[in-house]
Amino acid sequence: MPLSGRTRSRFSAIVAMATLAFVAGAFAQGQGGAPAGRGATPVTLPAPMPGMNAMVNPFRMLENWPHLGDIKPGAAIGIVPDGKGGVWLQHRSEPAILHIDTSGNIVKRFEVTFSSSHGLCQDGDGNLWAVDSGPFGDTPGVTGVKGNQVFKFDQNGKLLLTLGKAGVSKAGPDTFLQPTACHATPDGNIVIADGHWPRPKANPQDGDRLVWFSRDGKFIKEFGRHGSKPGEFIGPHGLAFDSQGRLFVADRSNNRVQIFDKNMNFVDEWRHFGRPSGIWILRDDTLIVSDSESNRAIPGATDAADSSLPVRNPGWKNGIRIGSAKDGSLKYFIDGTQPEGLAADEMGNVFGGLTGGCDQSKSGGCLQKFVKK
Q1: Which residues of the chain have pLDDT under 70?
Q2: Inter-residue contact 107 to 101 (CB < 8 Å)
Q3: pLDDT in tens, 144-185
Q4: Which ranges constitute the DSSP H helices of the chain?
Q5: What is the pTM of this model?
């Protein structure tokens, strides 16, 4: 049943309040009322709330797909469908960018490496933009050396331009705080989500934003700031546009999807798609959201609403939720997976990218392909 904007917001607020109340009670009971990290006894983590994700899953995962051969599987974070059942993949391995066909075979490889692969998008000319976030923690000899950049390649792997300065973490017109995702805009430019959590303590702890560049790399504008109000972000982690040109932002550490109109006026926020790591919208406005962090102990921003709880977005399952960008309704849920990377094509395929537990996936690695049963 379609939900009005007011009803969706009210529903999201009720779910959030109920979930926090549920966890607070469980947390207090398990801790004897003692605050976390101050000599308290071990806490029993809250169980998922019953019935929260009781939806149909019409998909099945292909086993032993893709076929990487002697390439070591790496966290599959950047996925761009090729429109033929295959994908361009950016993963945390070498070589870092692969073109994989519908059968799972590698047909092209870019001999490039990144400090930390973190997102891939394609512009209107078919060029690929690859995000290098840099390290997530303070590592001697690594932090501040590489990363914090976005690279533009043609489909033969030729480097066309570079945005940002290697190892420089700063929210500026020619530098990035810590870029996480990118997407082509309806008018032919590129928008980049900037600000990852967790991040090195040596880096600025605020500055989360969205940044626009022209296809030739000229800075256009920035939008947003660190925070939890409308138009603010804590770790924007994915971007997608619907048929109306509205921008959907996976505001991950705020456990919500934020929606903005063409002029970046706030439209709504949806929390019933879980804690969004990845987001994708098809031509018919099918909205697909991946959740890799809910109900898990993930470090992050200390000012996030659930930062004092033992897990993030407690009570919610990991997986892929599928619904409508038009009215926010939910239709399907692909469970049994924890994908951070996400993509889908008009052929009905859904692609998930794991950043952990790859050796346990029946796909044979970190990249997963889901097809209709």
Answers
A1: 1-53
A2: yes
A3: 778 999 999 999 999 999 999 999 999 999 999 999 999 999
A4: 5-31
A5: 0.87
Tell me the Ramachandran region of residue 305: left when phi exceeds 0, alpha when psi lies from -120 to 50, beta otherwise: alpha
Domain 1-67+236-302+312-373 has CATH 2.40.10.500: yes
Per the rule left: phi > 0, alpha: psi between -120 and 50, beta: everything else, 336 is: left
Q: Which residue(s) pair with 106 in the sheet?
A: 100
* Pairwise CA distance, residues 111 & 158, whole Å: 10
CB-CB contact of 95 with 109 (8 Å): yes
Q: What is the pLDDT of residue 140?
A: 77
What would the 3-class secondary structure string for 102-121 be?
Answer: CCCEEEEEECCCCCCEEEEE
Enumerate the domain spans of the chain: 1-67+236-302+312-373
Cβ atoms 244, 252 nearer than 8 A: no
Q: For 348, how many CA atoms within 13 A lie in the half-sphere containing its CB? A: 7
Q: How far apart are CA 119 and CA 259, in angstroms?
A: 20
